Amino acid sequence: MPNRPPHKSSNYVTRLTWNTFDWRKPSGPGKKEKGTYVARSGFGHEEWLNRSEWVFGGWRYAFLQGVNRQRKRLVGKTLNIRLYTINPMKERLYVGTLKSAEVIHDDTAKRALTFFKKNGLIKQMNDEVGAVGGKSPAFSVHSGSVIANIRFRPESLKMYQEPIPALPSDRILRFSRYAMIRADSNLLKQWAKRTRRAPWQEPPLTGSVIYKRASRLVKMDRTEAKMEIEIKKTLEKQYGEKTVEAQRNFRDIILTTANRRVLVEIKASQDARQAIRDAFGQLLDYAYFDTGLRKMYELFIVGRGAKTPETQIYLDRLRRRFGLEVNYRQYKIGSYHLVL
């Protein structure tokens, strides 16, 4: 029976197992899951979701555990899917979107299985599972739906360059199971707000891929989120609640008073130079890319490290040579003290 998607796609949210290889191959233990297939087998079938070079007839065939649990109800439908994950620290993270994914019938899944076998991909998947200590052989399959239960055009999958931590009020904090959850308009608006400026991953240019580890970035983001909450409260106390905005178009903090426009970028680094390096490009983009030079900001970088004489000389040089009003402030978590 051919896949005939409906004219209008349905919107869903689903969970991916944690992965530090950008969901291009299994990343092994350390996910800290309990009572799941991943916990028993050491990998999740969706860990190849972003393997963009595996294309058959113009389609990428892949597997989502959420679809697997509800496949009978969803088969033949076309879905727009928001993807999140839970890292080993139990944080919910926005990781990507998948548009117009078709939940495939058995005959289509069998053709996909034939393609995977013919091209040696089953063996490659088994080898990759074994390499990270997973249950091997992972795939001794007769059913195509074990390998693939969805298909999509390669350009339809957009993974963010970095996982984006959910804030305390975000609705995805309510979710934990591997299921397909209908996304209502409020959830979609919140998702769009959190990820509006998130850059996409670019597909690999060659077969040789450099994988970046996401765990350190997430730990830093967790600290930065705590700093942001405290700094927002501190500035509101000084200047008034209506003067302070957080996370508008991904700008950490915007302070607007009768005579000041201040843009604050927060970094968790305990080295002032590193914090400046990490924040500087973002500040320039946020201050000038969308708004133009007619709307001047005072630019503040806030980190956890003390400013050194060398970093002060560097900032002074930027002000003199380029006219950029760039400043650095140290913030100690729990102090609720910051002067801009």
Jot down its keywords.
340 residues; alpha+beta; 2 domains; five-stranded mixed beta sheet; disordered N terminus
Give the structure's gist in a few sentences.
Helix content is 31%, strand content 22%. With 340 residues, it is α+β, with helices and mostly antiparallel strands.
The major sheet is characterized as: 8 strands, mixed
Our measurement of the CA-to-CA distance between the termini, rounded to an integer number of angstroms, reads: 65 Å
Structural class: alpha+beta
Helical element count? 9
Q: Give the number of DSSP strands.
A: 13
Helix and strand run: EHEEHHEEHHEEEHHEEEHEHE
Instruction: Summarize model confidence as the mean pLDDT.
Output: 86
Indicate the proportion of strand residues: 15-25%
Low-pLDDT stretches are 1-7, 205-213
Question: Assembly state here?
Answer: single chain
For the record, the count of structural domains works out to 2
Helical amount among residues, as a percent range? 25-40%
What characteristic shape results from the CA principal axes?
A: elongated
Rg, nearest Å: 23 Å
